[in-house]
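Reading group handout, session on sequence-to-structure problems. Before we discuss, look at one worked example. The prompt was deliberately terse, the way you'd type it at a terminal:

> structure YCII-related domain-containing protein

The input record follows.
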Amino acid sequence: MKYMMFVVTSLEPDAEADESDVDLWVDPLDASGKRVIGEVLAPQSDSTVVKVRGGKVLTSRGPYVETAEVICGFDILEVENLDEAVEIASRHPMARNGQLELRPFMVWDQ
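And the output record:
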């Protein structure tokens, strides 16, 4: 199963967070093939929203809504089941300083 793991943090970063721990999480998962890809995202202020209204393409620059938390990165996991995805997510450094949302990819009828 594939899971998208959203890395969520507060707008006020935790001063105690140690980002060097991420490499200790990433390296073995990349080697095992459990982590397909992952990236840190640019700040929310760099985002662009695209929508079509009345046949016109409208774009606007972020941020857009008042929120205390933002998605700051993602990883795609290829695992056997949700239990394995939870176990992997629980070892991510942001599990202690933010939160991780696991969402399965949609399985389409074949």
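Points for discussion. First: The CA atoms of residues 2 and 105 lie 6 Å apart. Second: The beta strands are 2-10, 35-40, 48-53, 56-61, 69-78, 99-104.
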